[in-house]
């Protein structure tokens, strides 16, 4: 912050500073707003570029403007406050580059404050940049440039042409003038060099949202929606992807540690274990029975009921009820144990298992018994099975779900970030590799 | 911001996993019933399981 002129406001418009002259080509009134700072001024009527330093406004160039020419979105003479400093729009030009036969146009606005260096606003398809001339020379390496300690990656090099001008310019502007433009990006900034026959100019731009421009210059309506991704547009996913994956790795390790710790601390107490033989020979006999009472100790935790049966190309189904002897609270569930195997034209096959387990959630401590009602196919009259009840076991599924819950956001963030960067660099001289489409054959 | 959000989210996931395990949650769906009469112990056939009548798999390949 300078002590001499802390963001001095522009003088009250427009009387003392605006100089009215007439175009020597068509006689139309020429307004000079920049108080002697302009090198050239353009007649809006006949499109003559005039020498602003010449008291007679000598005509330097005359160019043809098309009636379809788009007027400036910020009208000349508009005043606004940008980054705390008052500026007036005094010049407007349209420039273009042609890449692979496609012409890309953008607009530049010249901003003036008598106490500050000239500033520019550029606009391309709704993307705006606030640009100022560099104070020192950047250091250029092979595919990068360093300015004020920040490294910028080369984005593109092209020849830019000036196609249309309006207003005042602090340099000798000409329509048709060409410059070799090289741009380096470090979002949200862009470093540009413009090389003409006589000089090289470096400028630094910062991506600015259209809404901020509209607010700064108090423009009516709203800023046009930006199209596509611009070279120095900040990514909406402003994140260090590597840091996210480091965090994921740390969480995955913590999850393993947590699983190991909880598994060690889980009691895994076998509260009941007994073998049975199911005989389905008498259909009238009552199959259901109850077990002895057993204790489930400790805090409220889960209970695993495991069933093993010597099924072989057969099944057994067990209707279970874990019943609290004192409260009458019950957990009702049915489990099937079936195992089939054989051989066919594809070779040997098998499916099912001779073992099954289920975990009952949040069972309070107390005295319990099981009511068991087995069923099976009458063709297999006798099936031996065992039932084991274990208190407080680890549920590995929770850790699998937690792992996915940690992984999915990391993948989503990475994907979003990479997609944006891919779109950004697709427009550069260094596009990312494209997957070829097999359907593109003509 | 995303990193901080992810760190907070990750801690929440770890905390939730630990809480679920400690509280004895399960991924299995089990029907819970109340006020089962004490007579079931003496007469197991008087209890009707809500899963009885289940259609059993009798196949194989």
List the main descriptive attributes of the protein structure presented here.
heterodimer, A: 442 residues, mainly beta, Jelly Rolls, 2 domains, 8-stranded antiparallel barrel, 6-stranded antiparallel β-sheet, 3 helices, 26 strands, 14% helix, 45% strand, rod-shaped, disordered N terminus, disordered C terminus, B: 61 residues, mainly alpha, 1 helix
What does this 3D model show about the protein?
- The complex is a heterodimer of chains A (442) and B (61).
- Chain A has 442 residues and is mainly beta.
- Helices cover 14% and strands 45% of the residues of chain A.
- Chain A has helices at residues 210-216, 241-265, 396-426, and strands at residues 19-22, 29-32, 40-42, 48-51, 59-62, 79-82, 85-99, 102-112, 119-124, 127-133, 139-140, 144-147, 150-169, 178-186, 189-195, 200-208, 269-279, 289-290, 294-296, 301-309, 314-324, 330-344, 347-353, 355-363, 366-376, 382-391.
- In chain A, the strands form four sheets. An eight-stranded antiparallel beta barrel of chain A has the order 7-8-9-10-16-15-14-13.
- The two termini of chain A are 62 Å apart.
- Chain B is mostly helical and 61 residues long.
- The mean pLDDT of chain B is 84.
- Classes of the chains: A mainly beta (442), B mainly alpha (61).
- At the A-B interface, helix 2, strand 18, strand 20, strand 21 and strand 22 of A face helix 1 and strand 1 of B.
- Strand 22 of chain A pairs antiparallel with strand 1 of chain B, so a sheet runs across the interface.
Provide a short characterization of the protein structure.
The complex is a heterodimer of chains A (442) and B (61). Chain A is mainly beta and 442 residues long.
């Amino acid at each position: 912050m300078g002590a001499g002129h802390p963001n001095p406001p522009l003088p009250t418009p427009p009387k003392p500073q605006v100089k009215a002259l007439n175009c020597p080509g068509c006689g139309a009134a020429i307004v000079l707003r920049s108080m002697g700072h302009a090198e050239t001024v353009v007649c809006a009527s006949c499109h003559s570029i005039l020498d602003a330093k010449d008291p007679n406004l000598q005509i330097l160039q005359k160019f043809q403007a098309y009636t379809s020419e788009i007027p400036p979105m910020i009208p000349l003479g508009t005043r606004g406050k940008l980054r705390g400093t008052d500026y007036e729009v005094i010049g407007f030009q349209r420039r273009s580059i042609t890449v692979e036969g496609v012409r890309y146009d953008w607009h530049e606005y010249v901003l003036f404050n008598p106490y500050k260096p000239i500033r520019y606003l550029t606009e391309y398809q709704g993307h705006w940049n606030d640009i100022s001339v560099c104070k020192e020379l950047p250091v250029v390496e092979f595919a990068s440039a360093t300015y004020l300690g920040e490294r910028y990656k080369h984005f593109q090099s092209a020849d830019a042409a000036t196609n249309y001008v309006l207003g005042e310019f602090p340099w000798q502007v000409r329509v048709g003038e060409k410059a070799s433009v090289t741009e380096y990006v470090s979002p949200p900034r862009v470093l540009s060099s413009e090389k003409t026959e006589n000089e090289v100019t470096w400028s630094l731009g910062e991506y600015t949202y259209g809404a901020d421009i509209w607010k700064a210059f108090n423009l009516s309506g709203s800023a046009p929606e930006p199209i596509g991704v611009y070279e120095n547009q900040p990514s909406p996913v402003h994140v260090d992807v590597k840091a996210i994956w480091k965090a994921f790795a740390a969480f995955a390790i913590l999850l393993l540690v947590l699983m190991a710790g909880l598994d060690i601390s889980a009691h895994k107490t076998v509260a009941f274990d007994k073998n049975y033989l199911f005989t389905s020979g008498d259909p009238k006999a009552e199959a259901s029975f109850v077990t002895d009472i057993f204790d489930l100790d400790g805090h409220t935790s889960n209970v695993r009921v495991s069933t093993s049966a010597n099924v072989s190309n057969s099944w057994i189904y067990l209707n279970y009820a874990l019943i609290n002897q004192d409260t009458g609270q019950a957990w009702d569930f049915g489990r099937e144990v079936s195992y089939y195997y054989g051989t066919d034209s594809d070779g040997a096959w098998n499916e099912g298992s001779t073992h099954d387990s289920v975990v009952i959630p949040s069972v309070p401590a107390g005295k319990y018994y099981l009511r068991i009602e087995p069923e099976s196919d009458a063709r297999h009259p006798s099936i031996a099975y065992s039932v084991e009840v274990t208190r407080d076991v680890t549920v590995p599924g929770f850790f699998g779900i937690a792992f996915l819950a940690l992984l999915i956001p990391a993948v989503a963030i990475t994907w979003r970030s990479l997609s944006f960067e891919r779109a950004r660099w697709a427009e550069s001289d260094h596009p990312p590799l494209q997957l070829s489409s097999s359907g593109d054959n003509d | 911001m995303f990193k901080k959000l992810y760190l907070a989210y990750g801690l929440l996931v770890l905390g939730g996993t630990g809480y679920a395990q400690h509280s004895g949650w399960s991924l299995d769906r089990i029907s819970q019933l109340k006020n089962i009469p004490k007579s079931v112990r003496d007469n197991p056939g008087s209890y009707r399981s809500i899963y009885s009548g289940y259609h059993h798999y009798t196949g194989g390949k």
